[in-house]
Amino acid sequence: MESLKAVFWKPDPQAQVRKCNQIMRENTRKLDRDIAQLKVVENKTRTLILQASRRAQRNPSQAKQAAQETRIFARELIRTRKTSQRLITSKAQLNSVAMQVQEAFAVRKIEGSIRSSVGIMKDVNSLVRLPELTGTMRELSQELVKAGIIEEMVGDSLPDELEEEDEEAESEVDKVLGEILRDRMGKVAATPSTPEPVQQAPAAEDEDEEDAEAMLDQMRGRLEALKS
Asked: How far apart (Å, rounded) are the C-alpha atoms in residues 136 and 152?
């Protein structure tokens, strides 16, 4: 029945506008949520790095293990930042698509016809390859094809830049650790020294040891969920 309607009746332009706007708003909200979640992961990872550094200072016998942990956490932090930056760029690109689509529909309303846009097709093709948006962006591309704004369906292949993500360069890890630990040392130097309660140190240390691995597993799980 729907196929017969498509043959004999043209899509309602207003319905098409509403449908496209709805899909783009949903995608924007999803990107906002994912970016906010990644910010939480980033802050937790910074905390884990600082906890491992403090543990190494309090207990020299654990210095080697703590140093290994800080490098693991630093790699996770680098990946999280890269994912977050990719989503921020994609959100800006999606906003650009939304403006171009509105302009295309406005031109059709004035001129009575619509011209396909290579620029929109290129942007949509890029966004549909983003794992976080694949499903809904395919739906948007279908609506834009129906409206005549783009001429063909987008491909299914993932872009090359999303296939890298191996081990981070050691120099980049060193840079991140230097940034975080230098900030901590600066804060310590700026704060008047006060005796640290000796009786509280063991409890804090034990808590750090118990929580570090669990928080790392949780952090990795969230990051993988965002990427999938």
From this structure: 16
Report the SS3 class of residue 165.
coil
Contact in structure between 48 and 212 (CB atoms under 8 Å): yes
Chain centroid, CA 135 distance in Å: 16
Return the axis-axis angle of helices 118-128 and 134-147, rounded to nearest 10°: 160
182-186 long-range contacts (CB < 8 A, ≥24 apart) are: 184/50, 184/53
> Which pTM value belongs to this model?
0.68
Instruction: Render each residue's pLDDT in the chain as its tens digit; 228 residues.
Output: 444 444 445 567 788 888 999 999 999 999 999 999 999 999 999 999 999 888 888 888 888 888 888 889 999 999 999 999 999 999 999 999 999 888 888 887 776 666 677 888 888 888 888 888 888 888 888 888 888 888 765 454 444 444 444 455 788 888 888 888 876 654 544 444 444 444 444 444 455 555 555 655 666 665 555 555
R_g (Cα) of the chain, nearest Å: 25
Per domain, the residue ranges of the chain are: 11-157+197-227
